[in-house]
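Purpose: get a first structural picture of the assembly so the mutagenesis plan has something to point at.
Setup: two entries, given in the order below. No constraints added.
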Amino acid sequence: MSRRLDSLRLRLRSLFRRHSADEELDEELRFHIERQIEQNIAAGFPAVEAHRKALREFGGVSQTKDECRDTRGFAHIESGWRDILYCFRTLTNSPGFAAIIIITLALGIGAATAIFSVTNAVLLRPLLYRDSDRLVLAWLDFYKSSMSDAPFSNAEFNDLRDGTQDVFEEMSSIMVFRAIVPREGGAAERISKAHVTTNFFSMMGARVALGHDFTTADGQPRAAQEEYVFPPPRAT
Amino acid sequence: MSESKDLLQGTLDLLILNTIRHEPMHGWAIAQRIQQISEEVLKVQQGSLYPALHRLEHQGWIRAKWGASENNRRAKYYSLTKVGRQKLASETSKWSRLSAAVNLILAEG
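Result (structure tokens, whole complex):
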């Protein structure tokens, strides 16, 4: 564990304090060469020759430095950063080209994002209703009068519901409108409203926020009032 | 190619770990010691030595610390860590087994 931490500490140090790590490496290698020179002098070489000999034996300093740097582990990030800087410099040399690339990318990313957000909302994300994978929507189309999206009449709805009981588990109906209502201050407000059958909310798994949901009894037509018609219909 | 390089690299690691097992040493002294003890047979070029030292430090087997050298200059001293000591023991026995096996084969010829 502490070994991992040590290694991480070294890596971070070499990333954020790259210059200091490089300087330390320089100093370490310089010390090596100086010790070698001293040894050469001790062995009887004249100073200049001792110096030359030490450097010659030492070999490629920059190659060694690169190899040491590679062991630090963040070398690829450093070189990646260099690539980005190079790319940036090249682009600033040809601003027109850069602008075209940036606009192309922006439009492309924007279009892709827009398409995805619509696809995500419409196709990928499930509807918020209960059993949304089993919900279907039915409506009327009148081809001859080229009228589509037409509502069922009450009688048609009842026939459809009663005739498809072995197909659909439940059927409810909704019809949406817009309405203008007066606000308290006298201004007008446009609202969306809908007529629904009594089972609509329970079928969709919705809860009524205030008050109580409709009951089946609410949907029953009231008993006809006794009417008096003049003149009285003739008995047949 | 890469296998023989691996073998050499592992051997150099083993030599370095063994050289600094008693006291912290700087790079130049490590190279000198290896050369002396091997009776001038093994010459460790700095081009292999320093990358190896830095790699071993990153693996957590050795630890580096700046200190004053024998000629009173700042030098980077390397010493074994606990893990490095364990590694040295296991690598040494591995090496003994390997060289003993090679010797057996050669002795038979």
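Residues 1-6 of chain B have pLDDT under 50 and may be disordered.
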